[in-house]
Amino acid sequence: MTRARVVQSNFGGSDPLQVLRQVFGYDRFRGPQDAIVRHVIDGGSGLVLMPTGGGKSLCYQVPALCREGLAVVISPLIALMDDQVLALRQAGVRAAALHSALASEAVSDLWRHLQRGELDLLYVSPERLLGGDLLERLQERPLALFAIDEAHCVSQWGHDFRPEYLQLQALAQRFPQVPRLALTATADPRTRGEIIERLALEQGRVFLASFDRPNIRYLLRPKQEAKEQLLAFLEEFRGEAGIVYARSRSRVESFAALLQAAGHDAVGYHAGMEASQRSSALSRFRNDPGVVVVATIAFGMGIDKPDVRFVAHLDLPKSLEAYYQETGRAGRDGLPATAWMVHGPGDVPQLRRFIEDSDSDAAQKRIEHDKLDALVGFTEAPGCRRQVLLAHLGETLPEPCGNCDRCLEPQVLEDRTVAAQKALSAVYRTGQRFGAAHLTDVLLGADTARVRSLGHRELSVYGIGKELDRDQWRTLLRQLTSQGWLEPVPEGRGGLRWGEETRVRALLRGELSLELLPATPPRQERQRASERSRGGRPSLAVGAAEAEVDAGLITALKDWRRLQAREQGVPPYVVFHDRTLVELAARRPSRLDDLGQVSGIGAAKLERYGEAVLAVIEGWQAQT
Ligand code: ADP
Ligand code: ZN
User: Fold this and answer.
1) How far, in Å, is the centroid of ligand 2 from the Cα of 236?
2) Please, what are the domains in the chain?
């Protein structure tokens, strides 16, 4: 029932809340969305920092519809642009994308629409925006705003620098009256500073949302038999979409085969595959339900599939930032999802070798080693995973989360106060500038040339730590760092200094004590949490509703959705998100009016799909 419809949208001057309800079918703004949207509608510029799944798109899509003129969205990823355009068109918005993969007739159509003012949003790659005469054409038209998505691409420090992004500096000069909104999920302060400087946003506002993803359950497991562990983990997720990350191409291939043999609908994905194989794997993952992609980190950028229920790591990622980004691909729809990882000390030397063998300069290698240390520190830290992760992103979570392995499977800790006192003293006595290797030498009383030339044999701390071995001291120093007792010396090539001094002194005086995990974790006898996140945190209202939902009705709705999607050649989640289906199954509306109340059903979708959805629900009720 695909009717080609002339989409009429003109929301100019509307109230943002009304646009949110009518067009997108949502009741209320989330977190800082409201403030951002109002700021931009009033003509303000700024930078939005929000985690993946936080709802960045609405921050510019709503103002795009409330302000006069065309909104231009700059995005580096073709797949992502196309998805957004499909989703907007489903909601009745006049959107188009301009990028290198567009056929020439489609391009001339687009120019015509642009000329006649028949577009609300134009997605464009930076090359297309700045090459050719698009800027001249835009200068002749009223513009609602510029949105610069994935704005961290302008930063050389960040992990995804794109030289084309640098030229976006021109926008501020050529269109001084048009609001510019930069958006990214990369939080670190240095990248943030570069974005502001390079996109001339000094006069704008910065909107920082929490980077917590409460619906993700973090589960870390000691690596034993990775194959068996993965298969056991996946049992709870049969039939659901997920990503399994492995370090190398050969591991991707062998694990994909393993999963296929165990009856999972698994596909492999890595950079060594033919382009056609890669794109068919990608399209299966996007369009078919319950596909598991086994991939190297080549996979994931630009994937905005909302219903990824798990991300599994078979090997340690490169850094805690990478871990956060990769696991963040789970549960964008806000429903419970799991980030699962097996890790062991064996992963680390290999990663160190990769760093050493790369062609980066010495300073860059140092940074990479420090980043890896922070990640290893995260895996070893005794407390709540989410608290450690958020602390690394510069955020404080006051209470343990209750949704990670540490919170769900309490540990037996050992008192390590004395060892910590020795380590902290060694840092102090050597002048708060040496790294773990030298500190360990001092603690163990090693007779190295460096120890001798620095005169460190004379120190009172020399040789006071013989009760632990080298690895144990290294572990302890990392644990102390990840808990803030120690911190890296800025630009200090791996050197360590004291963290907050009053706290450190209290520990040295014995007024505080320190409990840490035992050096070698006992094997699997602890009580295990379900691998599957049940949520359990406040923002998961739908998770609670799910209990009363009949799985049969969900299946019926998903089947209907799959047919719809196939007929139109779009991914299923563009028709309705899982979240919407779950709510439909919980509420079982019987009239169009009630249907319109369901989250994710705006006016256009109500008109297009309303009757059909009611028929599915009615048909299912008649059967049961
Ligand atoms: P991001 O780009 O930040 O990763 P998206 O813009 O794709 O996130 O939004 C993530 C999900 O949250 C989408 O499914 C979107 O429809 C949903 N969403 C965003 N804002 C709201 C809101 N105010 N109410 C309900 N759902 C929302
Ligand atoms: Zn926790």
Assistant:
1) 21
2) 16-208 (3.40.50.300), 216-408 (3.40.50.300), 414-516 (1.10.10.10), 540-623 (1.10.150.80)
